[in-house]
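Feature request, filed as a ticket because there's no other form

It would be nice if the structure record came with a short human-readable summary line next to the tokens. Right now we just get the raw output. Example of a typical job, pasted below so the devs can see what we mean:
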Amino acid sequence: MITMGPFAFLSVLLSLPWNIGGVGTCGTADIVGNSVANCDCPTRTSLTPSCGGKGMKCNDPYCHVDTTGELVECFEGCVQGNIECDACYLYFHSLCLCMKKSSLNCIQSGDWWLLNDHKLITTSKKVPGILQLGSDNGGWEFGQSLLGAGTVASRQWGTLSVNSVLSRDEEQIHIHVCDNPSSALRTHLSTLNWYDFKDKPKPLLVPIAGNSRFPAGTVQCQAALNPGTHMDVAEITSKYVNSLGGCEREKVGAGLITDKNDYSWVCLTTMDDHAAVQLFCYV
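Raw output as currently delivered:
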């Protein structure tokens, strides 16, 4: 029998891969599986623009321009390899804290969450952006319910919007929730006959907030069939995106707004250098 002294025995124990009581960092699988109880969310400072020096600019394969921010794994969304990237801050940090109940002002609806500052809605599912969302209307429906209840903004003055692939700065789908009483888009839509726009998105024939921002024809809108009702924003957006090819798909942003007659409208932006959030939140 081989014997060893107490110090030698302790050295062997310390060399083994024990993790008794250890807590790991919450990753993609933990968030998707809603299993964040036994892990810690990445800290704000652990996510950097350069992904801890490992990141790179990703060149869009259709438009051949660099997308915003750096990633380790391009065009995969917030996978484990991007856990140090600032472009996944919203997913790995903000959403994770909501799921752990560490952020106390978050509101949940199934897989969708209104984050702590009540300005963004996202999901625990790994969905990089508008093109991958498809016909999942859960987040849009949640947003419309929040506006209807006056939780964040009112149905009368509130807006929802998602940026295009080329203009987004996060690699996880997020819906902006804004209060915009002076919206130029709302003012114009209120002058139109909703019936002419009830079947599919049609281009607005006048510029919104001037030609330098959203020239005539660059915003396409579809109206609800009745006042006071919700719209299937995801389905309308998905059908429109699927009618396009290549680079044009990467330019599409989407949003929802209600006119002064209480008709909701889904509007799609088609310019690569102006984000949907600008149209719905700031002009």
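Something like this underneath would help us a lot:
Residues 63 and 247 are 5 Å apart (CA to CA).
The longest strand covers residues 66-71.
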